[in-house]
Amino acid sequence: MNIFRLAADLLHLGSIFILIARLRQTKSCAGISLKTQGLYVLVFATRYLDLFLTFVSVYNTLMKIFFLASSAYIVYLMMAPLKPTYDKALDTLRVEYLLVGAAAFALLFPHKYTVLEVLWSFSIYLEAVAIMPQLLQMTRTGEADNITNHYVFALGGYRALYIVNWIYRYYTEDRYSDYIAWVAGVVQTVLYGDFFYIYFTRILKGKTFKLPV
């Protein structure tokens, strides 16, 4: 594992800790898209079906368990104790289009034509667009609290660092290629483009975070 992969994983972990802390401390899920969080549960559930079939390392196994458990816990918080604070009227993206699109790409362009590999490919394609309900909700309201901003930034930053990791591995490892992850990762990072720009030009300068409505 190289430093870029490790930094990306830590940033991903950090994003989840930020979100859980935000939900528990404020006792509110206002401004958070339940649809995005539900998509992440599906992403991890379909990606880590090999949890008890393939052992790579203790680190790899613990990360899989954490992402599965934490994503399910976030959805539980939003659907049970914090449900009264969830505004369904703002969380309006039709996720069925994302699901159908990811499924179609997984069937047409899988890593391999096996059940586990098709589902793994589905999870990669779906993760690329899973943030869209959250970004749309932030656009609809025109603003977001700082903790939510930091959560989204950490989530986007983790994927951007993965691109650096892939570039590093391409030049340092023989015959390394992963076109599905590369394309999906670039698409995912591009979706954060406007958010990154506003984050760097406003939040880091101490200004109020506002998205164009």
Describe, in short, the structure shown.
69% of the residues lie in helices and 0% in strands.
Secondary-structure map with pairings?
Layout: H1 3-26, H2 34-47, H3 58-79, H4 95-108, H5 115-129, H6 132-141, H7 146-172, H8 179-191, H9 193-201
Key features of this structure:
213 residues; mainly alpha; 9 helices
How would you characterize the overall build of this protein?
This protein has 213 residues and is mostly helical. The protein has helices at residues 3-26, 34-47, 58-79, 95-108, 115-129, 132-141, 146-172, 179-191, 193-201. Helix 1 packs parallel to helix 3 and helix 7 packs antiparallel against helix 8. The termini are far apart.
Largest beta-sheet characterization:
none
What percentage of the residues does DSSP assign to strands (E)? under 5%
The helix/strand class is mainly alpha
Number of strands: 0
Radius of gyration: 17 Å
Low-pLDDT regions? none
Order of helices and strands: HHHHHHHHH
Shape: globular
**Assembly state:** single chain
Percent of residues in helices: 55-70%
Q: For the residues shown, what is the average pLDDT?
A: 92
**Count of alpha and pi helical runs:** 9
N/C terminus separation: 41 Å
